[in-house]
Amino acid sequence: MSLVRSIIAIGAIVFAAPVLAQETRSFTDDAGRIVEIPADPQRIASLQDLSITIPLIELGVHPVASHGRTTETGEGFIRSSKVLTGVDFDNSDIAFVGNLPVDIEAVAATEPDLIITTPWQTAPVEQLEAIAPTIVLDDTVRGDFGMYEALAEITGTTDTLAILEGRYDSQIEQIRRLIDTGSISVNVIQGVNGEVLSWHTYGGLGRVLRDAGFAFPERVDAIPEGEFARMSAEALPELDADFLFVTYRTDALETLEDAFGHLEQVLPNFCDFLHACRENQMIVMPREEASASSYYALGVMAYTVISHISGRRFEPLAE
């Protein structure tokens, strides 16, 4: 028997006792599986950092283990978590259990009473469920913030989620009070491998812009909700707006020059072809806050929108 199988087999025996001692309930996950899970899980292993770990932390639940990424030197980190929650592997008791796939033995060693994974995570569910009850949540179906609803229900933190939602509602109300959003067009673009990408709703930034009532280019409104489109340089004029937002990856040590460089690969001297860029109405920001599924990030984006657009004299894009 391999070492992995031995640990799983031992785990199935050792970890079954505390799970059985707990009160349990049935939960139907996004894979259509009915799983008996602890009614009050205390030791959750999260196998996706962005869509599970960060939401759990914001809900006040620290998992005992988490999927993560690695630096060039092999050091594990929870992507975007330092800037969004302040919590990472190096300042908490959360154990790093690998990336894609996670290390099954490392997961078992943390003795979880519940494992939460996604279809994106390639660690086999059948191996995970030998360690502890395992549920699959699909963020591509639920949406970025739909994951919060499921996680709050699983962890008994719906009151905390209601507070986070209430704060966000107030932030959107403030934008609408200070800015005539319906008369201003916006968009989010990104250069990738010589193509320009645009989203129907780009992460937290996109949610703020949509909820606040800003107008988007017709080409962007035509993109199905939850999806994005790759386009050639010829599409740039159709993606233009009064204000354009562009992001860059600070976790990969990129800077705003990299954001411009990626757009230059799409079209040399791209700025000459975009009204927002020519008029200094292109807002460049770190991607971690802009794209994250995080209520803290929503607040940062709401404040960014107010500080960059409220009361500002700008040159509207000609119809």
TrEMBL record:
Signal peptide start-end: 1-21
SUPFAM superfamilies recorded: Helical backbone' metal receptor (SSF53807)
Keywords, sorted A to Z: Ion transport, Iron, Iron transport, Signal, Transport
Stretches assigned to the Fe/B12 periplasmic-binding domain: 33-313
Record's keyword annotation contains Signal: yes
One Pfam family hit: Peripla_BP_2
Main localization of the protein described in the UniProt heading: other
Subcellular location: Cell envelope
Top-rank taxon, per record: Bacteria
Record family assignment: Belongs to the bacterial solute-binding protein 8 family.
PANTHER family in UniProt: IRON III DICITRATE-BINDING PERIPLASMIC PROTEIN, IRON(3+)-HYDROXAMATE-BINDING PROTEIN FHUD
Protein name listed in UniProt: ABC transporter substrate-binding protein
